[in-house]
Design brief:
The chain is mostly helical. About 55% of the residues lie in helices and about 5% in strands.
Length: about 260
């Protein structure tokens, strides 16, 4: 999947929806239910009276005000946000509908009678950001602030690569951003934010696969590489075959079958 509200990634063709409904479980990174969203709100804010300004300094804090206003986040709420929480907010374009691809798929899966489960808990997904040093968090925040004006352009580029089924291009765009970080911060982000999460999601997925048929939907950048989910599943003895991409109705093409 890709974390996007672009209509092109939400326009699934009929055959795809039939394939989705033929499963017992729909597994996604975390389930965006009300209890999880409530915990996310609490998790993203300091609970001990610490303020964002005390962590980022007055000059950086003043620059953050107009940027966060674009996300319709109240100033008093921003004042209590953690550094990493501001960073991940600014790393994507301001939401328009809130109907992102993973969320849309989970609603369709639930409507088709599948049990919707998370491959991670909220705390597991975000813990690597929580334990980063303040210096590393500020490095990531500064990058997000500097690239904010380009976030729409970068996001559009990634969506286009996703629709073309071009994982190497997606990886290259992500690497361009990671390569702007210092070596230590980059390695922490890759190892804890990608590789360790991939292994954790694999472990949960392996357990689910003993209970029934599973449709697993995770961000595309968790797929490639020696430590990506595709290779991790192959290491467990699974045969993986790619389906025709993109999966949306507007650009779906027929693929000749053997003998045709």
């Amino acid at each position: 999947t890709i974390h996007s509200e672009d209509p092109r990634v939400l326009d699934f063709h009929e055959g795809f929806m039939e394939d989705l409904g033929a499963n017992d479980f729909f597994a996604m990174e975390i389930v965006p239910d009300l209890p999880t969203l409530n915990r996310l709100t609490e998790y993203m804010q300091f609970q001990d009276g610490t303020t964002l300004e005390s962590q980022v300094g007055p000059k950086r804090y003043a620059a953050l005000g107009p940027l966060m206003a674009r996300y319709r986040v109240p100033a008093d709420w921003v004042s209590k946000m953690k550094v990493w929480a501001v960073m991940i907010t600014l790393s994507v374009p301001p939401p328009q509908t809130g109907l992102f691809m993973d969320f849309s798929l989970s609603l369709r899966a639930a409507g088709a009678g599948l049990k919707v489960v998370g491959l991670e808990t909220l705390e597991q997904q975000l813990s690597f950001l929580e334990v980063m040093s303040l210096e590393q968090q500020l490095t990531l925040l500064d990058q997000a602030m500097q690239e904010h004006e380009k976030s729409v352009e970068i996001h559009a580029k990634m969506v286009n690569s996703y629709l073309e089924g071009d994982l190497p291009a997606l990886q290259a765009t992500a690497n361009e951003q990671l390569n702007e970080l210092d070596e230590e911060t980059r390695q922490v982000f890759i190892e804890r934010g990608v590789n360790q999460r991939n292994q954790r999601m694999l472990d949960t997925l392996m357990s689910l696969l003993t209970q029934g048929k599973v449709f697993a939907a995770v961000g595309a950048l968790h797929l490639p590489g020696e430590k990506g989910l595709i290779q991790l599943l192959r290491n467990q003895g699974f045969d993986l075959d790619p389906l025709p991409l993109p999966l949306n109705a507007a650009k779906q093409v027929s693929v000749p079958q053997p003998g045709q």
